[in-house]
Amino acid sequence: xxxxxxxxxxxIVLSFWIILIALIIAAPTLLPxxxxxxxxxxxxxxxxxxxxxxxxxxxxxxSLGQGIFFALGGYCAAMYLQITxxxxxxxxxxxxxxxxxxxxxxxxxxxxxxxxFTFFAIWIIPALVAGLIGFLxxxxxxKGVYFSILTQASxxxxxxxxxxxxxxxxxxxGLKTDVTQLFGQMVGSESMQRIFFWITATxxxxxxxxxxxxxxxxxxxxxxxxxxxxxxxxxxxxNPVIFKTIIFxxxxxxxxxxxALYTVQSGIVSPQxxxxxxxxxMVIWVAVGGRGTxxxxxxGAVFIxxxxxxxxxxxxxxxxxxxxxxxILVVTALPEGVLGWIQGDGPRxxxxxxxxxxxxxxxxxxxxxxxxxxxx
Amino acid sequence: xxxxxxxxLIDITVSFExxxxxxxLNLNLKKGELRAVIGPNGAGKTTFLDVITGKVKPTKxxxxxxGKSLVGKKEHKIxxxxxxxxxxxxxxxxxxxxxxxxxxxxxxxxxxxxxxxKSIKDEQLNEIERLMKIxxxxxxxxxxxxxxxxGQKQWLEIAMLVGQRPDLMLVDEPVAGLTDxxxxxxxxxxxxxxxxxxxxxxxxxxxxxxxxxxxxxxLNQGTVLCEGTMxxxxxxxxxxxxxLGRPED
Lengths: 376, 249
What we know:
The complex is a heterodimer.
Chain A: H1 10-30, H2 33-58, H3 66-84, H4 96-99, H5 115-139, H6 145-164, H7 166-169, E1 175-176, E2 181-182, E3 185-186, H8 190-215, H9 217-235, H10 240-266, E4 268-269, H11 276-289, H12 295-314, H13 319-332, H14 337-343, H15 346-353, H16 364-375
Antiparallel strand pairs in A: 1-4, 2-3
Chain B: E1 5-16, E2 19-30, E3 34-38, H1 45-53, E4 60-65, E5 68-69, H2 75-81, E6 83-86, H3 98-106, H4 112-117, H5 122-134, H6 150-163, E7 168-172, H7 180-193, E8 198-202, H8 206-212, E9 215-220, E10 223-228, H9 230-235, H10 237-244
Helix pairs in contact in B: 3-5, 3-6, 5-6, 7-8
């Protein structure tokens, strides 16, 4: 029994959903296409943030390498789009190959001719890579800061590999998607972008429900147990390696979906998705929004990125300072993040400090019990 | 070693870079026995539990539990075989509620698929209710475990241990920081658990050990100094020397 939990009754929840869905449907007519596209991109980033919240907020695994899985998803989507739109180019292969004198399609591109394969590859390949990396790391009981360093090192390995492979995946230039065709339409066109926005919004909601389902009940409780006291989980008869591998793999899959949606809306995938700062930013979104709240991860990703684009338009080059300040603020003043602060006693304490709200009794449970007694 | 033994520790030696935490330790436990283990600081009491539960691999020697060797097995495998452990300071999941803590301990099988697909079984819920009554936490079902008092945390951890239904319960200092009344209740609880379960209790508190009214093993410098009832060991000259100090030391 706690005072702090805000109780939503059913009517409020229902009207929240109606407004949200109405906004999503109406967004394309309300927003200019440029803003709509930005919002769509940021919504897709919120999916990778959900994954970060699952592994970091719930399980305590601070990964600084989610960019790997994000980029893998993006590359899967871009390879499909490039290869299915390459009929007018020499040798019927994507245009960039001609620059490096490649005449035959590298073998691993072949399966990406199939839309069905691509649909699964976008999330299964990143999930498998994450599962493999995770299993090897967790089996050797590498945790804490060593885990973070290891994920960042893996990120750099992937970055350097993708950056150097011109003949395989166009190296540092990346793969463009905005001039490719999907279902007979240009991917970068206005109508396609509108559809991508709706798809993204739907997937964000689906991913949110999926993440909530994962953390509810005993499975989620084990994740929290691993975060708080892993040896205790082990001595109770659970194998934390399997749980950690599963959740890391789920986060990898979510990152892949996120990367694919981001790629088709930003028009290109490149090794820039695997730079160190970008993966750290993902962690900042979750830290600011609120660890272990799921919704906080979504809001953090969308609002910070939107703020970033607005600030960058008004005061170029100042964003890095603001982002750094935001992070320092969260670490020092709001360790639970904004949503965690609201769900805790944050607003009440602030009002009390300014004398705007009566202080609660020293024994809140007494007060609560009395109130409940009166209601009955 | 005979068939009635649940656990045999045979010539266990644990060396931490030359320091012998356990030195040729031999100890046998019968099924259903309640055994107290005492010893001065650094005698190897906690290392002894670490060896049984797989946290520390012995440098030499064998641990036989229900006829099988435990040496080299992972902690969670040993726990599943039926060895439960309560830690020195209460280790419960503070961010989970009392009920969620107990759910984690009573759930079987302990694999991810079972936890995510199926909801908890009715008999397990009944078991949780029974346990909460035994340890007087029925009022606190939905409270965060972190908000409990120290004594309640100790009891919650004991309840979690019982909920695991282990054949062997290893209880490390269960009464540290408890009031006299709570200590007595804990002693009664542990006594009532033996018989069906085999219980090993480690503690310093002599009054508590006396109340357990069980066989006592005295550890010193990593080896068993003497075994017997409380009366016998209190008269034992070696034990007196260890606890009171020998003149020539």
